[in-house]
Amino acid sequence: MTMPMKHELPKLPYAYNALEPFIDAKTLEIHHTKHHQSYVDKLNAALEKYPELQSKTIEELIKSLYDIPEAIRTTVRNNAGGHFSHTLYWNTMSPTAEEYVPEKLGKEIIGTFGSIVEFKDQFSKAAANVFGSGWVWLIVTTNGKLKIVSTQGHDNPLMTGDRPLMVIDAWEHAYYLHYQNRRPEYIENWWNVVDWKAVEKNYNSPE
Ligand code: MN
For residues 138 and 191, is the Cβ–Cβ distance under 8 A? Predict the structure, then answer.
C-alpha cells in the first residue's frame, strides 16, 4: 500500500524580507504561510476521499478538471489553481532580479508588443484593470504566440491549454498591508523583482 501523496506548500526561494522595499516582509509572510498554505490544505482535504486523484500533479488536476468528480470540482479548480498560480508567482520573483530581459524572450516580446516598455505598460494596465481578485499572465498560446491574459479568482491559463511564463497576483491580499488600495503602485514596484531569467527559463522549457 502506498501512502497518499499530499500536496505541499513549496518553500520560498528567498527570505520574507528579501523583496523589500517592493514587497514588504509581513505581506509576503502572510501571503505564503496563510493564503497559499490554505489553498494547499483545502486541496488536500478535497482529495482525501479520492485516492485515485492523489497521485496527479497540480498541473494534471487543472488540465483535466472535467474529469474531477462534480462534488469537488469547484474546490479543486479554486485551490489547485491557487496553489499553481502562487508557485509560479514566487518563482518568477527574485531579490537579485535584473532589469535586462534575456535576448531570445526579449526579441519575442518586442516582436509581439512593439517594445519592452509597451509590453510592461500593457501588462501593468491589465493588472490594474482586474476587477476584484485575479491574475495577469504572460502566456504562450496553443499556437505559439505571446499574449497577456487576465483571469478571475484562481483560474489560470492551464485551463485553456496555454503555457504561462510569468504572473502577477492582483488579489488585494498580495499588497494591501503596505500599499493599501494603491494597486497601481504595487504593480509598478513589482517590476523591480521580476526575475526575467526565470521567465525566460519557462519560455525555453515547454512541457
Ligand atoms: Mn495571492
Answer: no
Q: Are residues 78 and 124 in the same domain?
A: no
What is the CA(171)–ligand 1 centre distance, in A?
6
Cis check: omega of the bond before 21, within 30 degrees of 0: yes
Number of domains in the chain: 2
Q: What letters, b where the CB count within 10 A reaches 16 and e where it falls short, cover 159-193? A: eeebbbbbbbbbbeebbebbbeeebeebbbbbeeb
- Predicted pLDDT at 1: 46
CA of 114 to the centre of ligand 1 (A): 30
Domain enclosing residue 54, as ranges: 25-91
Cα(117) to ligand 1 centroid in Å equals 26
Q: What is the pLDDT of residue 4?
A: 56
Instruction: Report how far ligand 1's centroid is from the alpha carbon of 119 (Å).
Output: 23
Taking the model in full, what pTM does it have? 0.96
60, 91, 122 - which closes a domain: 91
Q: What is the mean pLDDT of the chain?
A: 95
- Indicate if the pLDDT at residue 5 is higher than 90: no
Whether 86 shows a pLDDT value over 50: the answer reads yes
